[in-house]
Amino acid sequence: MKRLVLAGGGHAHLHLMKSLVSQRWRDVEVILVTPYTRQIYSGMLPGWMAGHYSLEQCAAAIEPLAAAAGVTLHQAAVVAVSADERKIRTSTGTTFEYDALSLDTGATIDTSCLAASGATHIPVRPLEQFVVSWERLLDKARRQGACRLAVVGGGAAGVELALAARHRLLNEIGERQVTVSLLVGNELLPGHGRRIRQTVAACLVDHGIALIETRAAGAPEGLILADGSVLPVDAFLSATGVRPPAWLQESGLSLAGDGFVAVGEGQQSLSHGEVFAGGDIASRIDQPHSKSGVYAVRAGPVLTHNLYRHLHGQPLEAYSPQRRSLYLLATGPKAAIMSWNGIAARGHWVWRWKDWIDRRFMRQYQGMPSSAQGERHGTA
Ligand SMILES: Cc1cc2nc3c(=O)[nH]c(=O)nc-3n(C[C@H](O)[C@H](O)[C@H](O)COP(=O)(O)OP(=O)(O)OC[C@H]3O[C@@H](n4cnc5c(N)ncnc54)[C@H](O)[C@@H]3O)c2cc1C
User: Which of 159, 229, 281, 345 has the fewest Cβ atoms surrounding its Cβ within 10 A?
Assistant: First the structure.
């Protein structure tokens, strides 16, 4: 019996487990190590913040999925990987040896420059902590009847958080009691095209969100801006850039320049053939691409095929990530902005499209019967 360890319950591993529900792999024991028993879907998180979804609608329940897939769930975080010894260690002190390891633990965010703030700081990751903190912030705003909120981070996530937060706060405590600022560093939506930047900037203006193009640091009085002025806030959310988890550094795995796991065309580690990685934790050396959910989802099928092939001594499949991706950004009320190949559009119809895509995606992982099924064995 060979052992496959799945680290993290991210998008690619949800796909892998779903594929095991219909067809298990002969002579392979599969263990999933993940700290939470659900996976909150970031694509629907702004809609939840805005009040359009319940949290259950935005989450995949991992326990029944793992049970139906015949996967053993070990609820803990990976804290160390020793790639040369083919071992991982978890936060409960358990060590697992493996024949193959698949990494899909996502990224963390770098909030070190915001640490000194006296205001409530709510980093968007881990999402499980974020959802608790956001509920607390709403309670506090309701009690105080006012909220001065900032969002630090000029990427798509920062934009969506700012628009969702304002929409919800307005509904909860009224327009005159709410101010929302978006601090974007050097520019809004770096790496995105001119059209989408213009469309998003216009949308922020329409929703009364102050766009501040400067870097911010935490200070006891609130947020301190690059010119030395202080932005007084009651709380701020951060969606600053991604960074690799600290334990990767000591793993012995070959890392890309950005510190994430260096993988090649089959999502296979460049240094250790039995290690595979998908989603934000992986960086393709041959075809670099941005870190987004779109690529994390697309990595699911290739990881599934190649882990199966590796464990059964078959040649790996090459995979080319798409060069362009569709972005659909929720904008607070049931409206959204789309961006594709230099084109940008905005409206309620975009929201309906996004809502349809997101709900359809999540339906795959919801309502899973917990009884074991899919006892067939075979190829991936
Ligand atoms: C607010 C927001 C909105 C976004 N909207 C979009 C969007 O609309 N479109 C888009 O393409 N991208 C979007 N993104 C980016 C997207 O969320 C990420 O690119 C995507 O989630 C990466 O998927 P992943 O599977 O690599 O990791 P994740 O989705 O982060 O999943 C990682 C999993 O691993 C678990 N884990 C973490 N650490 C460990 C550990 N040490 N050991 C074990 N398990 C661990 C986590 O609990 C989680 O279950 C958004 C991000 C945010 C924050």
Answer: 229
The DSSP bridge pattern shows strands 222-225 and 108-109 to be unpaired
pTM: 0.94
Q: Which residues line ligand 1 at a C-beta cut-off of 6 Å? A: 7-12, 33-36, 39, 42-43, 45-46, 77-78, 104-106, 124, 156-157, 160-161, 239, 245, 279-281, 291-294, 296
Could you identify the atom of ligand 1 that is nearest to the CA of residue 295?
11
Cα 22 from chain centroid?
Answer: 26
| In the predicted structure, residue 23 carries a pLDDT above the cut 80 | yes
CB contact at 8 A, 204 and 184: no
Q: How far, in Å, is the centroid of ligand 1 from the Cα of 131?
A: 14
User: How would you list the strands of the sheet with 178-183, edge to edge?
Assistant: 120-123, 235-238, 147-152, 178-183, 210-212
The model's pLDDT over 120-162, given as tens digits with 9 standing for 90+, comes to: 899 999 999 999 999 999 999 999 999 999 999 999 999 999 9
Q: Write down all domains in the chain, each with its CATH number in brackets.
A: 2-35+76-107+244-324 (3.50.50.60), 110-238 (3.50.50.60)
CA of 229 to the centre of ligand 1 (A): 34
Instruction: Identify which has the larger pLDDT, 325 or 25.
Output: 25
Mean pLDDT of 194-218: 95
